[in-house]
Amino acid sequence: MAKSYRRFSHDESVFATALLAGLPGVVVSLALLWTGDFTPKVQWTLTLIVAGSWLGFAGAVKSRVVRPLQTMANLLSALREGDFSVRARGARRDEPLGDVMTEINTLSRTLQEQRLGALEATALLRTVMEEIDVAIFAFDQDGALRLANHSAQILLDKPAERILGRNARELGLEEWLNGDPARVLSTSFPGHPGRWGMRRSLFREGGRPHHLIVIADLSRALREEETKAWQRLVRVLGHELNNSLAPIKSIAGSLGAILKHAQRPADWETDMRAGLEIIETRADGLSRFMQAYARLAKLPQPNLAPCSLLALVHRVVALELRHPVHVVGGPAIQVACDAAQIEQVLINLIKNAVDAVSETGGGVRIAWTKQSHRVELTVEDDGPGVANASNLFVPFFTTKPSGSGIGLVLCRQIAENHGGTLTLANRSDAPGSVATLRLPA
């Protein structure tokens, strides 16, 4: 049978090495002692002294090596346990062992500062989570609820001790963990009916995936925006109605005063005719305004279908007879759009460009390019440019005497309904403006 030999530990190896280092001197000393002309008493006394010194110094060497290692082990154990207050004494930079102790002390201080910063950041995060009025939930991979802030507890009308650890199915929240990560919910929570915006994201804790879900009440924001929209609408309608009704009332009063007089001036029929024409003009303007508003409010959703952009552009350009429009062109591509609505957008943009160059002269150009995920179509003119770009997309704002202020607003709404954008800005390379319509490719 093969014999198994026990391997020496580090302290045993150090002790054996120290013994072997002193062994030659001890052997020579004892040989000279016992072969020399000494009395037995002297021989035994010196033998004990030599052997004791040999073993004592070997033990001191072992202790000198092992004790610092035990100290470092205790320091590292304290770090592993999270106790960063323990320090090694007598650490100096002028010796190798002191360098090691100093580095361990520095590591302890660094970890202590980092843990303090983490604790402060965690306390701040908890305070913020408890103070915000957005409900925050965290579910682990098994669907168990692990975190719910104060707003989340109010939303469910249950304290944390009654919901933490429970499964999402038990809480009736299983649908949150499935489906689109960002959507609007029409769920009625206990005592909190309304519409809610939900966002779900993934994070890891302890190497395991968790779901972080944020629920925000949209009802208040929607009500505020609805109130603002009504206020803007009332201001616009009131402004237009006052602009039309005030002169109508004034002229009607003047005409009524003429008819009340028994002695009428010789040209009273002319005054009556002129006044009625003004009333008719203002009434017609008010009617056109209401029709423009109804057109904006009743814009249907686009019916998407494949459409050749080149053919669509040429159809629109052929409708403009006042001024030639140069088709710069672009790649032969198809886009999914409502052709009738996009034609209306291009008709309005080209009409505005032609109106602009009718004042200053110059040309109108239309071009398009295909980028990674979108098509960018531009209508460029050599006109005077845009004077007040901030109000271009404000409903009923217009710089034209006969304009309704609804064309650009309608165009932008059509673009946004297609998932795109519409911008109008001054050109940077020359006088004029450029309208940019971006649509998904």
From TrEMBL:
InterPro entries: HAMP_dom, HATPase_C_sf, HATPase_dom, His_kinase_dom, PAS, PAS-like_dom_sf, Sig_transdc_His_kin-like_C. Its EC number is 2.7.13.3. It is found in: Membrane. One of its GO terms (molecular function) is ATP binding. The keyword Transmembrane applies. Coiled coil: none annotated. It is an enzyme of class 2 (transferase). GO terms for cellular component: membrane. The chain crosses the membrane at residues 12-36. SMART domains: HATPase_c (SM00387), PAS (SM00091). SUPFAM superfamilies: ATPase domain of HSP90 chaperone/DNA topoisomerase II/histidine kinase, HAMP domain-like, PYP-like sensor domain (PAS domain). GO terms for biological process: phosphorelay signal transduction system. It holds the Pfam family HATPase_c. Its main location: membrane. Keywords: ATP-binding, Kinase, Membrane, Nucleotide-binding, Phosphoprotein, Transferase, Transmembrane, Transmembrane helix, Two-component regulatory system. The keyword Transmembrane applies. Residues 63-116 form the HAMP domain. It catalyses: ATP + protein L-histidine = ADP + protein N-phospho-L-histidine. It comes from the Bacteria. Residues 236-441 form the Histidine kinase domain. Residues 121-167 form the PAS domain. This is histidine kinase. It comes from Horticoccus luteus.
